[in-house]
Amino acid sequence: MEKPVRKRGRPPALDRVVGLDIAARLFWERGYEGTSTADLTKAMGINPPTLYSMFGSKEELYRQALDFSIARENSRRSEILQSHLRAYDALSLYLYDIADGDTQPDKPRGCMVSTAVLQHAEENASVARMTAALRESSMLTVKARFDRAVEEGELPAQTDTDTLARFYGAIIQGMSAQACDGACNVRLKRLIDVALTAWPGKRQTSTGNSV
Questions:
Q1: Which 8-state DSSP code applies to residue 124?
Q2: Is 143 within a domain?
Q3: Residue 204 DSSP one-character state
Q4: CA angle, corner 179, sides to 181 and 122, nearest 5?
Q5: Burial class (CB in 10 A: 0-12, 13-18, 19+), 188
Q6: Is residue 5 part of a domain?
Q7: Helix, strand, coil distribution of the chain in percent, nearest 5
Q8: What stretch of H or E contains 75?
Q9: What's the domain count of the chain?
Q10: In tens digits, what is the pLDDT along the chain, a chain of 211 residues?
Q11: What are the φ/ψ torsions at residue 204 (nearest 5 degrees)?
Q12: What domain range includes position 107?
């Protein structure tokens, strides 16, 4: 008697949020070019057609994974910048929070966006433009907070808020690079302490008085 032929079952369904979380971590660890479609499907436990039907292309999955990762971090950081704290105090908390994110013990080092796709093959130029636009957007958000500080008298009227925002953006990118090289949380926060001495406006002292 012949044994019945066993039909191949359908692969288990993948929850979209779980898939984005897996993809975000892989892209964070290996970068866009260092992560293959095979890596993604293996980690998610799905086949390529399922990946394409759920997320589109690899590039589209990367965009969605970036949005997913940013949404988890930026809501808290946006609240810090948009709060009623003095600009100096908001900037301090913002930078310290980024340092904490760069050095989480259970996650890849650095920031998924700050140092993403800086060097790339020509065919991945659109991905590089995407990540550059995200970095530019973050700097514009910081600039808007500095513009408000000028209006509220916390920064001198002649402050070049664009250059000041780009200065702290360079600090943020530098922290990501150094975290990837093994810099610890304490070292990054010492770097922030030095960067904050460049603040050209009013600050809070330990007694609560502005200087």
A1: G
A2: yes
A3: B
A4: 75
A5: buried
A6: no
A7: 65, 0, 35
A8: helix 58-82
A9: 1
A10: 455 544 454 455 688 999 999 999 999 888 888 899 999 999 999 999 999 999 998 999 999 998 888 887 777 888 999 999 999 999 999 999 999 999 999 888 988 888 777 777 777 788 888 888 888 999 999 999 999 999 999 999 999 999 999 999 999 999 999 999 999 999 999 999 999 999 999 886 444 555 5
A11: -95, 135
A12: 16-196
Q: Read off the tokens for 156.
A: 């001198």
Q: Are 211 and 205 in contact (CB under 8 A)?
A: yes
CATH code where residue 133 lies: 1.10.357.10
Q: Quick one: which H or E segment has residue 186? A: helix 185-196
pTM above threshold 0.85: no
Sign of CA dihedral 123, 19, 185, 85: positive
Pair 127, 32: CB distance under 8 Å:
yes
Q: Tell me the C-alpha to C-alpha distance, in Å, between residue 9 and each of 12, 13, 64, 108, 172.
A: 9, 11, 29, 35, 48
User: Is 133 inside any structural domain?
Assistant: yes
d(CA 100, CA 89): 17
Residue 202 placed within a domain: no
Residue 148 backbone zone (phi > 0: left; psi -120 to 50: alpha; other: beta)? alpha
Kindly state the tokens that stand for 208: 């609560």
- 10 Å CB burial of residue 133 (0-12, 13-18, 19+) is exposed
